[in-house]
Amino acid sequence: MRIKLRGHHLLCLSGFQGYGYSEDFVLNMARINEKRKSEDCIITLTNEADDICSSCPNLKDNLCENEKQNEVIVKMDNEILSQFNSEKEYNSLELFKEVSMKFNTLKSVENVCNNCKWENECLFYKKLE
Known about the structure:
Strand order of the largest sheet: 1-2-5
Largest sheet: 3 strands, mixed
Distance between the termini: 34 Å
Oligomer: single chain
Mean pLDDT: 89
Number of helices: 6
Helix content: 40-55%
Low-confidence stretches: none
Strand content: 5-15%
Structural class: alpha+beta
Radius of gyration: 14 Å
Shape: globular
């Protein structure tokens, strides 16, 4: 099975516990979060709308909310993607091990997680505090 993920969603999936923008979004995120835990899951990385975004009520014309907000999201993606080879396909289990090793301090995620609306619910962020 294959999943396409935005850079910042690597962190979001690592801390996901059932919150989201809508019921459809939460169900899709939960489904993808389960898929990514499979040994045969392959992930491609992007800084554009991905498989999680497909159920987001904020996705308009393949942009997150509007051009200005989308620019912020793309910067977050690029911050994470700078640590990976975006041309490569990754085994999901190996990729998420790498994510946890590379992003293991508050400083390592400050340009991505600061001011995130899910900060208080995110298990990934809480373990860094």
